[in-house]
Design brief:
This protein has about 475 residues and is mainly alpha-helical. The chain contains 20 helices and five strands. α1 links the parallel β1 and β2. The longest helix is centred in the middle third of the chain and has 22 residues. The mean pLDDT is about 95.
Length: about 475
């Protein structure tokens, strides 16, 4: 490479797997030849390494992204190992003068960004040529965490004033187009073969229903957005009805960064009505969750409210009966049709209807009195959209343990919720043992109508409610 030629620019990809509205890629493409790199780092996240559903989606998303780069005359470099070491090695090997990346707020990625800066500074002190530097960009949220602040300059802890401030600061930044061209380096670094990572299940292949249900990648994300644009006016009315396809189903695409929330916002900004206003608030909730882990990095691991100690919960590690209750919940064998339908949908599709997520979470926490962290971990392992911030934020909201949360004594009644939100067809789809029951029985089959192959309730609703309230009062007294 002559001194007149621009030096290569590395783009470090994580949960930002797209070409359009990709600020790191946009900046790199303007500066020189681009080396896009994805590093599968299973050690740095510790216990938060990807679960099986994550890995399934990641395989297909990387496959799609690799094809998109190839269509532009570029390539996606895949490496496995410690992200910092891999990136420093590629920088040295290629002569890159910058590593561009979109900021991530999970604590392990914040640590990695800081460590990478230190490693590059160490190289710079010994370098004769231009040193490589880390260039971080904002691009995964409507507003960067730390933007919406209270009048005293502090981050918000409550969603409602946070949301109001975000709305006052709108519109968000403009979207960036896909680069007109992505120049290739003279020499490509070596790349792993995606199939060698073994991200897909084989024995058994439990993802067949997921493969039929989902289309994955940047093009699929925009196709899904176009579909939702036609339905957003009815979103507020239909989003709570599990038997209807009234949700956006955008969450996995947003989680993996196949589309940005800014792109979604600008596509919808001319809409009027409660449907879009409600969905806009849910986009802002994603920002709020990031705002919380920015303040409290271990928020998905630790209850925010100190008065909620582990004495409230029936710990599955303390007895076979409690462990069996947890396993019955995971398998969709609780005897509560709406709960079982949700848990079976989760296992089959790696996704669950949002209203049913709240019902199933509340059931585990308050009916079974099992620590919310067990449920949060199961969702992390089984959701294709399992997000460190959003998942932890939502579970703490349901448990009443969070900084902004529902009160614990407000105990959701799953049986009446099922009837209220017309979940009969949803139950028939996911709990086939009950498919022949009429609507007046399917939500809560009595002994006469409950099929022999469908389990009895783990605990009655009234008994569970009274037990939860007793445990809560005792905890408060202690």
């Amino acid at each position: 490479m002559s001194s007149d030629e621009p030096a290569p620019q590395i783009v470090w990809l994580r949960r930002d797997l797209r070409l359009a509205d990709q600020p790191a890629l946009h900046a790199a493409a303007q500066a020189g030849p681009v080396i896009p790199v994805y590093v599968l780092d299973d050690d740095r996240p510790g216990s938060r390494t990807f679960g099986g559903a994550h890995r399934w989606w990641l395989h297909h998303s990387l496959h799609s992204l690799g094809k998109a780069f190839a269509a532009e005359g570029s390539a996606l470099v895949l490496r496995r190992g410690d992200a910092v070491q891999v990136l420093v090695g590629i920088a040295q090997e290629s002569g890159a003068t910058a590593i561009h990346a979109i900021r991530h707020y999970e604590p392990w990625w914040r640590d990695a960004e800081e460590e990478l800066v230190g490693a590059l500074d160490g190289l710079a002190s010994n370098a004769d040529d231009d040193a490589c530097r880390l260039c971080l960009h904002d691009g995964n949220y409507l507003l960067p965490p730390g933007t919406a602040l209270t009048g005293s300059g502090n981050p918000y802890k409550i969603f409602t004033p946070f949301s109001k401030t975000v709305l006052e600061q709108f519109p968000p930044r403009n979207t960036l187009p896909q680069p007109d061209s992505i120049a290739a380096p003279d020499v490509w670094p070596e790349s792993d073969d995606l199939s060698d990572w073994n991200l897909l299940p084989t024995k058994p292949d439990w993802a067949r229903a997921m493969a039929e249900f989902w289309q994955i990648g940047e093009a699929a994300a925009h196709e899904r957005l176009r579909h939702f644009e036609d339905d957003v006016a009815r979103y507020d009315d239909r989003r709570n009805l599990p038997s209807e396809d009234g949700t956006s189903r955008m969450s996995p695409h947003l989680h993996w960064g196949e589309i940005s929330p800014v792109q979604v916002w600008h596509a919808m900004k001319g809409r009027r009505g409660q449907g879009w206003a409600t969905f806009e608030k849910e986009l802002i909730w994603r920002d709020f969750a990031q705002n919380l882990i920015y303040q409290f990095p271990r928020y998905p691991e630790e209850s925010y409210r100190d008065d909620f100690d582990r004495s409230l919960w029936r710990n599955p590690d303390r007895g076979h009966r409690i462990e069996a209750d947890l396993e019955a919940w995971k398998r969709g064998q609780t005897g509560y049709p709406i709960v079982d339908a949700g848990m079976r949908q989760l296992w089959a599709l790696g996704w669950m209807h949002n209203r049913v997520r709240m019902i199933t979470a509340s059931f585990l926490i308050k009916h079974l009195l099992i620590d919310w962290r067990h449920g949060e971990r199961w969702f992390w392992d089984t959701l294709v959209d399992g997000d460190y911030a959003s998942n932890g934020c939502n579970w703490q909201w349901v448990a009443g343990t969070g900084v902004d949360a529902n009160m614990f004594p407000r105990i959701m009644a799953p049986l009446s919720q099922s009837e209220k939100f017309a979940a009969a067809e949803y139950i028939r789809e996911w709990v086939p043992e009950l498919a022949e029951l009429p609507d007046d029985q399917i939500h809560d089959p009595d002994d006469e109508h409950r099929p022999a192959d469908y389990p009895a309730k783990l605990i009655g609703h009234r008994e569970a409610r009274e037990r939860a309230l007793r445990a809560y009062r005792k905890m408060k007294e202690d």
